[in-house]
Amino acid sequence: MITSEAAATVLVYGFITSLVYALFAEGFSLIFGVARMIDAAYGMWYTAAAYMSFALVTVYNIPSLVTFFATIAALFAAGFVYYWAVLRRIKDHIEMIMTTFLIALVIQNLIVLLFTNFPWSTPVVLPGSTLVFGVSVFNQQLAAAIAASTLLILLWLLIYRTKVGLAIRSVAQDLDAAVCVGIRPERTMALVLGLSTALAGLASLLVTPQSTITPVLGWPMLTLAFAIVVLGGLGDYRGTLLAAFVIGYVEIAVQNLVSPLYSGAASLITVLLTLWLRPKGIFGRSVE
Amino acid sequence: MMKRLDKIFVVTLLAVLAAMAVLPIALNLRFIIFILTLTNIFAMLAVSWNLLSGYMGLLSLGHSFFFAGGGYAAAILSISYGVPPVAAVFLGALVITGLGSLIGLPSLKLRGHFFALVTLIIPIIAYQVTNAIPQLGGHDGIFGIPSLFQSAEAFYLASLAAMAGSVMVSYLVMRSRLGIIFTCIKDDEIAAKAAGIDVPRYKLLGLAISIFIAGVAGAFYAYLNGVISPATYELEKASLPLLMTLLGGRATILGPVVGAYIIEILIETLKIEVLVRARLLIYSALALLIFMIFPSGIVGFLRRKVYGDTAG
Amino acid sequence: MEILRVEQLIKRFGGIVAVDNVSFTLQKNEILGIIGPNGAGKTTLFSLISGTEKPDSGKIYLNGEDITNTKPYHRALKGLVRTFQIVRPFKSLTVEQNLHAPLTVRKIHFNQEEAIQLLKKLGLIQKRNIPAAYLTHGEMKKLEVARGLIAKPRILMLDEPFGGLTVAEIGEVTSVLREYYEEGGTLVIIEHRLRELMKLIQRALVMDQGKLIFEGAPADVAKSEAVIKAYLGTDTVI
């Protein structure tokens, strides 16, 4: 029997987790759906953001807020350059996965070189905790949930209510037609990449304070993003959002009600089953 | 019939093999023997990877699953069922071939890049599941695996033979009608189907062969270390065959072996303090560089110089 | 003797009906041409027959056997072979190895002499050992035809085999196709190069907007009102 406390815990933590997952997955969804590219290094941007902010705050004593913006700006720039210098030149998808995978390894090993494998503890940004529906939640997590929802709304507005978003959606639907109406595809793509790496960084900065970081942090996140995007239907904002909640809740539910050991496996098995049984996902394009 | 150049090549190869079998033992180079054994094991893994990803074009980013799986299967057969070691190696490989094929089968129909991402996920799931199941030894894994051979030298020779064997298999497969069929599938699946090729069936066959070789390598690895744990699923082992093969040459028979030896030499020579931490960085950067400049790797580059063509 | 029968095939892509209730039969040892304006559904029809696409409804019979649900590779093995409008050579394989492929999968022994003869007739013999990636467009087109012929199919379906070829190259291809026909083969050809096609075919099907609008002798095609309307529009007066 599930106690009401356990249920409340799952509901609350599930909600927070899903929001952050959604933010992270939307970035991945943009790359897949709009730029039609695969970035096997997507998890590494998450990791890099975590380490960069860690270094800025603990080593150089830069105030948290400045660090936050500096890191996001750096991630955005990195995504832009990443597209321009690397991704743009690769046509074949398999070459792209290999190259991005190798780049991920290089970045990871760079981090290992600079920080070693030691699981550093990240500083606390918002101390204390609050009761939400009777469940004790760290203030950091609460802030993360609020920030994530705000950012998700902003992202939606950006994509569906601005000229930039229109350009992005046009490029996603029909590249040639977009070119014909004067949209510069490469600039839009670079923007999309910058946006997605920034989203990865945002998700990271919301979650990593008050925990520990290791260089391999990004890989489970990558697989999560992949799982969510596949489940939701590639490149679809709504689908990704919905799928993020499904996966987020599945993970938290398994973690609290069954065993922490199986939580990761549960969400990943979900994606395997989706790929095998219903490749179209909930909405959107097929992966076959 | 073999061209003269081919004949010289084969003779040289056999000579090298013979030298490798005899010299380390004759010169009593104990410390090198362990390293060479390990290199042979990874070379086998690289050959297995190359068969699937290089020749068939099914990029696998999670080959460590088959490697560790072979090790686990052999270990369990050995310890819990008292299967004699040599038999356990082959049976273990068969077990993981069956399991891996079952898991891999539904993924084969996916487009190449999705297949690759799925292979990235599988070791991560396996890690979690293995950690959680007590029969598999949980986090610490299974240890106390009885030794395969009495002496390190015998193990070394066995690993050399197994490695050479896997190269032979790779060669025979690619030179046979299977090789043409696999290349057709890699080049253009739709044209392959139009030519009468049952693509799913042949993909499964290629997968099975690749997994078997990886499984044998994994079993050897388990016996070499006396222990197998979830750590074997980790990214380093998953990416090493890729790095080795890219360095040595994708879609070449010897490329993976050459790459394996080069990387192992690098590992050993770079045992200077700072560089130990940097070593992964160095060979991933190296692989990236090679990949972008010499897409056909070292062996591919050499072959072009010698034969003047790029036909695989 | 009827070798292929297509009954009421329908294929929709979203809102568009690409193939609209098409039926026809093909006799053994005949040369059938399929023509029509761009977008008429000719290639889709081919894809339905070869199995690359599944019809929404309708049936296909090969030698009396219902192959509507048979997989593409299996149809090829049963002797229903097609070539592609946009060439699909096996780029890593040499020209000769490209011919090897359809034979090796059928476990037919590779008769090198025959292959060489075929390559000679198509003007590809010089590039025999060169990877297909390095051929010119015309040569790749000829390789498609060679690859289709090498396994001696029951029916060879060619999708725009003359596209982009010089007059000389078209001559090479036509002569091997004639030889195949004289040895008992059956051909179905989609083409836009009408002058060359009409000299080769015995019967013509004309498609427009997914429908079959004419079936008959090549000489009568130009006289059909339906055909004229399809190609030139309703305002034209001849």
UniProtKB/TrEMBL annotation, chain A:
<keyword id="KW-0813">Transport</keyword>
<feature type="transmembrane region" description="Helical">
    <location>
        <begin position="140"/>
        <end position="160"/>
    </location>
</feature>
<feature type="transmembrane region" description="Helical">
    <location>
        <begin position="261"/>
        <end position="277"/>
    </location>
</feature>
<dbReference type="InterPro" id="IPR052157">
    <property type="entry name" value="BCAA_transport_permease"/>
</dbReference>
<keyword id="KW-0472">Membrane</keyword>
<feature type="transmembrane region" description="Helical">
    <location>
        <begin position="42"/>
        <end position="60"/>
    </location>
</feature>
<dbReference type="GO" id="GO:0022857">
    <property type="term" value="F:transmembrane transporter activity"/>
</dbReference>
<keyword id="KW-0812">Transmembrane</keyword>
<dbReference type="GO" id="GO:0006865">
    <property type="term" value="P:amino acid transport"/>
</dbReference>
<feature type="transmembrane region" description="Helical">
    <location>
        <begin position="12"/>
        <end position="35"/>
    </location>
</feature>
<dbReference type="Pfam" id="PF02653">
    <property type="entry name" value="BPD_transp_2"/>
</dbReference>
<comment type="similarity">
    <text>Belongs to the binding-protein-dependent transport system permease family. LivHM subfamily.</text>
</comment>
<feature type="transmembrane region" description="Helical">
    <location>
        <begin position="189"/>
        <end position="207"/>
    </location>
</feature>
<feature type="transmembrane region" description="Helical">
    <location>
        <begin position="239"/>
        <end position="255"/>
    </location>
</feature>
<keyword id="KW-0029">Amino-acid transport</keyword>
<feature type="transmembrane region" description="Helical">
    <location>
        <begin position="66"/>
        <end position="85"/>
    </location>
</feature>
<keyword id="KW-1133">Transmembrane helix</keyword>
<keyword id="KW-1003">Cell membrane</keyword>
<protein>
    <submittedName>
        <fullName>Branched-chain amino acid ABC transporter permease</fullName>
    </submittedName>
</protein>
<feature type="transmembrane region" description="Helical">
    <location>
        <begin position="97"/>
        <end position="120"/>
    </location>
</feature>
<dbReference type="InterPro" id="IPR001851">
    <property type="entry name" value="ABC_transp_permease"/>
</dbReference>
<dbReference type="GO" id="GO:0005886">
    <property type="term" value="C:plasma membrane"/>
</dbReference>
